[in-house]
């Protein structure tokens, strides 16, 4: 999964120009990403969740029906871009309505299971966490939702502020979410050095068998 940083599209190009103006405060080798799940609806403004530690991320939601799925990148130092995909196992025919709440530009969106997006900022962001948006998914039965790679770059991770551009880091830990009767991963568990984002349906299915 570790690939050289690439320039992709106008959105990333804007971020790279901005990133070159920053020396960078540090890198993100310990960054992680988890899926926070909650009841729909979610507002990008009023009451938007803030994640101060891993305990703030709820990867299990017992309800069915309309559910919001929110990727949360955490244990960060700084960033100018995040990229990821989402996949849901039990009803891959279901469609998602993705809403971006953070970032200055994006390429890609998430409608079908396996879709992904890259979100960029024009200035260096210094924060412990960022939840760039949420996907609205209607769940009719037990479902497990998993982080996947952004299908264009085949990566899931963070680009930091060092130029030109800052190093890209794969997420060192990924935590999927369970809803409507399934249990999600523990976002506070120690990171397994061998853990990677599954890239095939076989690998994803193995997570919930």
Describe this structure in words.
The two termini are 25 Å apart. Helices cover 8% and strands 36% of the residues. It is globular. The chain has 2 helices and 14 strands; from the N terminus they run αββββββββββββββα. It has one domain (9-206): Immunoglobulin-like (Sandwich). The protein is mainly β. The strands form 2 sheets. Strands 2, 4, 6, 7, 10, 11, 12 and 14 form an 8-stranded mixed β-sheet that branches. Strands 1, 3, 5, 8, 9 and 13 form a 6-stranded mixed β-sheet that branches. A hairpin with an 8-residue loop joins strand 11 (157-159) and strand 12 (168-170). The model is unreliable at 1-24 and 199-209 (pLDDT under 50).
Brief summary:
The protein has 209 residues and is mainly beta. The chain has helices at residues 9-19, 201-206, and strands at 32-39, 60-61, 65-74, 79-88, 96-100, 105-107, 116-125, 129-130, 133-139, 143-148, 157-159, 168-170, 173-175, 177-179.
Low-confidence stretches: 1-24, 199-209
Helical element count?
A: 2
The overall pLDDT average reads 84
Instruction: Summarize the main sheet.
Output: 8 strands, mixed
Tell me the name of the CATH class. Mainly Beta
What is this structure's SSE topology?
Elements: H1 9-19, E1 32-39, E2 60-61, E3 65-74, E4 79-88, E5 96-100, E6 105-107, E7 116-125, E8 129-130, E9 133-139, E10 143-148, E11 157-159, E12 168-170, E13 173-175, E14 177-179, H2 201-206
Parallel strand pairs: 1-13, 2-14
Antiparallel strand pairs: 1-3, 3-8, 3-9, 4-7, 4-10, 4-11, 5-9, 6-7, 10-14, 11-12
């Amino acid at each position: 999964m570790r690939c050289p940083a690439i320039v992709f599209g106008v959105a990333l190009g804007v971020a790279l120009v901005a990133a070159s103006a920053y020396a960078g405060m540090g890198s993100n080798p310990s960054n992680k990403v988890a899926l926070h799940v909650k009841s729909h609806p979610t507002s990008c403004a009023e009451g938007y969740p803030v994640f101060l530690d891993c305990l703030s991320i709820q990867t299990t939601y017992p309800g069915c029906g309309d559910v919001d799925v929110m990727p949360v990148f955490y244990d960060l130092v700084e960033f100018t871009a995040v990229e990821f995909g989402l996949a849901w196992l039990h009803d891959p025919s279901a469609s998602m309505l993705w809403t971006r709440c953070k970032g200055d530009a994006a390429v890609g969106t998430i409608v079908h299971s396996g879709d992904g997006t890259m979100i960029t900022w024009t200035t260096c962001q210094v924060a412990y966490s960022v939840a760039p948006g949420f996907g609205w998914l209607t769940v009719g039965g037990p479902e497990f939702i998993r982080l996947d790679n952004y299908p264009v770059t085949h990566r899931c991770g963070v680009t930091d502020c060092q130029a030109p551009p800052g190093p890209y880091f794969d997420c060192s830990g990924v935590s999927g979410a369970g809803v409507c009767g399934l249990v999600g991963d523990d976002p506070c568990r120690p990171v397994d050095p061998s853990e990677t984002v599954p890239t095939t349906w076989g690998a994803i299915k193995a997570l919930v068998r």
